[in-house]
Amino acid sequence: MSTHDLTVPVASPATPWRERLGTMVPILVLTPSLAASFIYVFVFTIWTLYLSLSNSSLMPTYLFVGLDNYASLWANRRWNIAYTNLFLFSGFYIVGSMAIGLLLAILIDQRVRGEAAWRTIFLYPLAVSFIVTGTVWSWLYNPVDGIQAFVRGLGWTDFSFALTANRNTAIYAVIITGIWQSSGFAMALFLAGLRSVDPDLVKAAQIDGASVSRTYRKVILPT
Fold it and tell me: Are 133 and 181 in contact (CB under 8 A)?
């Protein structure tokens, strides 16, 4: 009676050079990008900071003058207007985009008819270039041909919507335009979060008699 060898062959362990190669390949691949990131981010940032403390103008020089440049900057009236507009734009733009985006996401989350079409409509402004957006909204803000002229043509002769005609309100025209372009993106992010909530939690809240607004405030949004 013959016997058969049932021994399972065991794979030979990797040779040391293969192990070293497997360790070195990721390092070799990542090293150039990490080195470039370090140079272009940290080195140039430090160099720019040093130049800001020198008397450089168009061409860099290295005569140290301390904080004189910053003192001159803060004494400039145009700089004060610039950073005031920056804080105004950042605050209203972020809060407005998130608020409108959340509202649109909640409305679409009600499984409305033509949901795909509504999502496309709300996301479309994000696909429009900044140049086209600025051009179109400049027409809308134009008091002669824009929204103001249209509403006055309907009979409301006292209606005024000429934000860009006044330097004190021009920043709000930019804010409205930015919110219009970015609200759709915020809506997409919020809608993805709303759709990821466990449906059983929503059903349990509905069985307990919670209203739609209370369900969103107490169950969906905190989740």
Answer: yes
Number of Cβ within 10 Å of residue 97's Cβ equals: 21
Q: What is the pLDDT of residues 175-221, one digit of tens each?
A: 999 999 999 999 999 988 888 888 888 888 888 887 888 888 878 77
Q: What's the rounded Cα separation, in Å, for the pair 91 and 83?
A: 12
Give the position of tokens 């904080």. 67
Give yes or no for a contact between 52 and 63, defined as CB atoms under 8 angstroms apart: no
Q: What does the pLDDT average to over 122-149?
A: 88
CATH architecture of residue range(s) 77-220? Orthogonal Bundle (1.10)
pTM of the model: 0.68
